[in-house]
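Late entry, 4-(N,N-dimethylamino)cinnamoyl-COA complex.
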Amino acid sequence: MISVDFNDRVMIITLTRPDALNALCKKLITQLNAALDQAENDTRIGAIVVTGSGKAFAAGADIAEMKNLTFAEIAEKDFIQPWERLARCHKPVIAAVNGFALGGGCELAMMCDIIYASETAKFGQPEITIGTMPGAGGTQRLTALVGKAKAMELCLTGRMITALEAEAMGLVTRVFKAEDLLKEALATAHKIAQFSAPVVRMIKEAINDVAEVPLISGIKTERRMFHSTFALEDRKEGMSAFLEKRAAVFKNR
Ligand code: DAK
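Prediction complete; structure with ligand written out below:
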């Protein structure tokens, strides 16, 4: 349901359930989470790219799997919880959205740190058209990215938007020709992975604080993290290399 490849210090996770447009069934999410655990525990991995096979990134949660679930069942099993694993990943994740990113697929992309899209990608939160609503952070993360009125329109109508419209709204980071998408995502992932891993982790954590803590406390945490980079050999090496006009060699310590 997923395939995992390694390209130097980058893990590439491909959702491979093309017959169902990579619909996010329980098994697929379990495999995705296992791959994320693996990346998190492997110090050689500096960044992760998530993409889809075929014409979809992911067309949402698996409707066939959800159809007969009862309220009692999903409430008791806290149906939503395993999906949040991606949002809690400490390593940087780039979504390379190659096609449909709908419902849970759009939510999965929004859990990533950067969203690159092909010109042919399509985004949307169509849950309302099947009698339900976004359940994996869609109303929250989409609103944070595009603002209330646009999030309302997308979630209340289920309208699908193009990659270019999504980029103009602030949902997508950059749009590329389909054939360049993975190459560009990998180039950015490699670029990030060459930097000091503890510094990358701190930057990700500090930016994520914006959504989770009040400004004054986020600024304080950011300052403490900045101070703590001065405990790293990598910080000394980075500044020395700049002044000595040579490339820095980071050792992640
Ligand atoms: N689930 C299951 N199967 C799906 C699917 C989905 N979401 N999307 C597509 N498929 C299947 C189709 O049933 C079809 O299967 P066969 O008939 O060939 O067996 C196959 O994939 C190809 O789809 P189509 O024939 O429909 O392909 P088209 O190109 O004509 O149309 C489409 C593409 C993307 C416009 C269309 O497939 C579509 O509208 N799909 C459904 C999109 C959608 O409504 N997505 C939102 C699902 S609800 C939560 C976490 C997440 C969620 C909720 C809670 N917690 C953790 C609490 C999220 C909910 C959702 O995502």
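The two ends are 36 Å apart (CA to CA). Will revisit in the morning.
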